[in-house]
Automatic annotation (TrEMBL):
Name of the protein in its database record: Fic family protein
Amino-acid positions noted as binding ATP in the UniProt annotation, renumbered to this chain: 69, 195, 199-206, 237-238
Any single Pfam family the record assigns to this protein: Fic_N
Alphabetized PROSITE patterns for the sequence: FIDO
Keyword Isomerase applies: no
Amino acid sequence: MTFQADRPYNDLPPLPPKEDVETKSVLKACIAARAALAELRISGQHIPNQAVLINSIPLLEAQASSEIENIVTTTDRLFRFANEAGNLADAATKEALRYRTALNQGFRTLQERPVTTSTAVAVCRTIKGVELDIRSTPGTALVNQATGAVVYTPPEGQNLLRDKLANWERYIHEAEDIDPLIRLAVMHYQFEAIHPFIDGNGRTGRVLNLLYLVDKGLLDIPVLYLSRYIIRNKGAYYDRLLAVTTEGAWESWILYMLAAVTETAGWSTARIRAIRDLLDQTAERLRRDLPKIYSRELAEIIFVNPYCRIGDLVSSGIAKRQAASVYLKTLVDNGLLQEVKAGRENLYINPALLALLTEREPAQGGR
């Protein structure tokens, strides 16, 4: 059956694609993307306390990936509620924080097993905050938000979906003659086309992208801000996904994803270097101007937690509660932190770090 937008695409072709996915242009772009990822990986290794990175860039990724699905929150709210259960956060912030949780939990499970269908189910459950499984009921359709027209109807039938996911899983781990970055683009399209869940497929697929890069050894930790490119080129993201379905246009889709990897790896590398420099400058300023309270751990904790609490210093073993309060107020008095009231407690904000993390260019149209 040929593709019809308003009918379940049960004949979604299995992987590998029949079309050539290793064109000259793709291979050239793949070399650039791999080089950018290698530089990012090395840059991350230069920050000994990896929590500094894990607590920052994945939150930006969570915000952008959620925004792609029109779930909009702010960086300020995400960092403010990042270390809480989120009970005081608005619904969009809670959902974006669950994305960050899904990414971190998935990262930890990679020590036990590679990316699988079970990984996808666990990720989607965490993102949505409910127990769900592979779709079993019909009626799912993707529509153009501007016109209301159906643009894609994914396959239906739980057994069929599980078969297609099993094929997807075999491809990403067994097609070793294909570069992992090309497989990344192919696997992301196929997962979105299978659309295995009632909701949360896009965000789940984007978490799986980062986990796959770690799984294949291209990253040590999931600190690629990949959704930054997608949100800035959102129209092209959906257009090129659909063009694979309607035209078999694999090359343009793969080139889009490789460009996303290359650009965001460069951005992430630059930010990591800037974070490292700012951390070193902060530690030196503490050592020079505040020797009585200086420790490298104190400098690092206000980078691990850009919205720092007295309890963060206590739980890290830096100081007991009374001393921790004195330390943070001293940092405020010396212009390193800003103090704000949040309910019954005070938050101590690292404004220089937040300014560095939230620099963002205006969105661009599709290419």
